[in-house]
């Protein structure tokens, strides 16, 4: 029976997560869909990750180690190249799948039209004592041709994805030059050729950890800049959206003290869409000095946290 089902390759990149990775591995081994292989790519950890992984005695598990640290994108790409499955799934070493995740996604693919390349789901984001369901209900379009929605921002969580391996033909892999947001960049690219299917229910928990890449503001801003430049033709089709991205980068740069580049991006934001009143407000506040800007930023964050 198992041989008649499509094999799923589950790729888990990891780096110094020996204390967390057992939970992630167990959540994959406990899947109700059994025809899987698990490829753990250790990105040159300096802790006892290898020892922890090899304690799991399961023939479906394969351990690969990078000799040098190359980053999460390179680790995922290594796993993709080593995979044998018809479908690819990604698990993060600090997250936890629900036991029926793959089963539900394989069922979704079974009656999907051929142009569907990716099936993803909702998930719970756990931050301290907060539990948030994503993606937001405010999104108007979550499946089908979601290219234009993805140009507004990423809402497809990598650990929620099950995708056809054929999506990676023509060397469409994770961009290893990006210090963050590599999943968003890949979804933007793949959404030009494939449609997405969304399962409107949580199929995993994603945990926020102190050393998460997504908490490094410098990396996020640099990646955001690179992605805008790489896909500028696509972003430029919606000037209002482009203005919002320039605004986000500009205010982010100002927040970390890089006011010169920050102002340049805010000016780009205004040039892209002259009625962006958020941009006009920030440029006006900057006329009164950096300290006033910081007070405004802190007040804005405090209000946003309360809501």
Question: What can you tell me about this protein's structure?
Answer:
The protein is α/β, with parallel strands linked by helices. Helices cover 41% and strands 19% of the residues. The protein is built from twelve helices and nine strands. Strands 1, 2, 3, 4, 5, 6, 7, 8 and 9 form a nine-stranded mixed beta sheet that branches. The radius of gyration is 21 Å and the shape is globular. The N and C termini lie far apart (51 Å). The mean pLDDT is 93.
Short descriptors:
2 domains; single chain; alpha/beta; Spore Coat Polysaccharide Biosynthesis Protein SpsA, Chain A; 307 residues; 9-stranded mixed β-sheet
Can you lay out the helices and strands and say which pair or pack?
Elements lengths: L7 E7 L6 H9 L6 E7 L6 H6 L6 E5 L6 H11 L4 E4 L4 E3 L3 H10 L5 E12 L2 E5 L12 H4 L11 E3 L17 H9 L4 E13 L9 H14 L1 H4 L3 H17 L3 H14 L4 H10 L3 H17 L1
Parallel strand pairs: 1-2, 1-4, 2-3, 6-9
Antiparallel strand pairs: 4-8, 5-9, 6-7, 6-8
Give a quick rundown of the structure.
Helices cover 41% and strands 19% of the residues. The chain is of the alpha/beta class and 307 residues long. Strands 1, 2, 3, 4, 5, 6, 7, 8 and 9 form a nine-stranded mixed β-sheet that branches.
Assembly state here? single chain
The main β sheet shows up as: 9 strands, mixed
CATH fold type of the largest domain: Spore Coat Polysaccharide Biosynthesis Protein SpsA, Chain A
How much of the residues is beta strand, in percent? 15-25%
Give me the number of helical elements: 12
User: What is the arithmetic mean of pLDDT?
Assistant: 93
- CATH class division of the largest domain: Alpha Beta
| String of helices and strands | EHEHEHEEHEEHEHEHHHHHH
Q: Report the count of strand segments.
A: 9
| CATH architectural group of the largest domain | Alpha-Beta Complex
Instruction: Compute the CA-based radius of gyration.
Output: 21 Å
| Weakly predicted, low-confidence segments | none
Count the domains. Answer: 2
Transmembrane segments: 275-294
InterPro entries: Glyco_trans_2-like, Nucleotide-diphossugar_trans
Protein name: Glycosyltransferase
Keywords: Glycosyltransferase, Membrane, Transferase, Transmembrane, Transmembrane helix
